Amino acid sequence: MGILERLISAASQGVEARSQQVPLADLEARLGQRDHDRPFQEALTRPGMSLICEYKRKSPSAGEIAPGVQLPDQVKSYEAGGAAALSVLTDETHFDGRLEDLAAARAACSLPILRKDFVVDQYQLYEAATGGADAVLLIVAVLDDERLREYQLKAAELDLDCLVEVHSEEELERAVESGAEVIGINNRNLDTGVVDIQTTYDLITDVPTGTTVVSESGISNREELVELERVGVDAALIGESLMRSEDPEETVRLLAGMGDSTTEHFLP
């Protein structure tokens, strides 16, 4: 079984277990208790390069990333540094995430929050909506065409934005055909773990005009962000380098180009 297959299998087992503990009807009843939304897509389309800063405790490739780093402190630092949005890992088996992290992040800052997980069932959309997320990650490699379209429609009903993730030309074509408005180009091959930022440059030329584009994985310095913005990328999702930083607020500020000579944005 490959890496992605193991991730999908674990996600499916997790949904089954949680839906036994908290029936879908209970989640539906909680929808009316949601506080005001924080538009995720809107945060990514402001002038310049927007940063989606990620909180994750570990990963299958890196193992434990930042022992002792507390979620409230970290996300407050991201916000203070100029982040546009948050990404919060909620996969428990491989990333040591938890649904409760969404509410904790929401309480600690005012940024829109992406629930980053392996969505394999509509139940997870209801979890995201009631748990504190403003957007969800939909991975094209995980979903067939019918579910990809169906989950985007359901997410819209639940006032959730979708970041639709691709890694290849075929996946990009499927994402576009599904009507995706925000496309994430993952520079990491989920089967091999290999990261190559060239993936974004190879695929962005085929993204339709007007689509919000996010580059994900393997980005760690301001120069890379400047070049990505130059070719039309709207936002970048950065996680591991921020989690390892001794001063995440300052690191975000430097990545965003605040206060240095590279703050000029390459706008049309």
Write the layout of secondary structure elements.
Blueprint: H1 3-21, H2 24-30, H3 40-44, E1 50-55, E2 58-59, E3 63-64, H4 71-81, E4 85-89, H5 92-95, H6 100-108, E5 113-116, H7 123-131, E6 135-139, H8 145-157, E7 161-166, H9 169-177, E8 182-186, H10 198-203, E9 212-216, H11 222-230, E10 235-238, H12 240-244, H13 248-255
Parallel strand pairs: 1-4, 1-10, 4-5, 5-6, 6-7, 7-8, 8-9, 9-10
Antiparallel strand pairs: 2-3
Helix pairs in contact: 2-7, 4-6, 4-13
Description:
- This protein has 268 residues and is of the alpha/beta class.
- The chain has one domain (3-255): Aldolase class I (TIM Barrel), CATH 3.20.20.
- The protein is 43% helix and 16% strand.
- The chain is built from 13 helices and ten strands.
- It has helices at 3-21, 24-30, 40-44, 71-81, 92-95, 100-108, 123-131, 145-157, 169-177, 198-203, 222-230, 240-244, 248-255, and strands at 50-55, 58-59, 63-64, 85-89, 113-116, 135-139, 161-166, 182-186, 212-216, 235-238.
- The strands form two sheets. Strands 1-4-5-6-7-8-9-10 form an eight-stranded parallel β-barrel, surrounded by six helices.
- α11 (222-230) links the parallel β9 (212-216) and β10.
- The longest helix has 19 residues, at 3-21.
Quick structural summary:
With 268 residues, this protein is of the alpha/beta class. It has 13 helices and ten strands.
Structural features:
268 residues; alpha/beta; TIM Barrel; two-stranded antiparallel ribbon; 16% strand
> How much beta, percentage-wise?
15-25%
Helix and strand run: HHHEEEHEHHEHEHEHEHEHEHH
Strands, total number: 10
**Based on CA inertia axes, which overall geometry fits?**
globular
Mean pLDDT: 93
Q: Class by helix and strand content? A: alpha/beta
Number of domains: 1
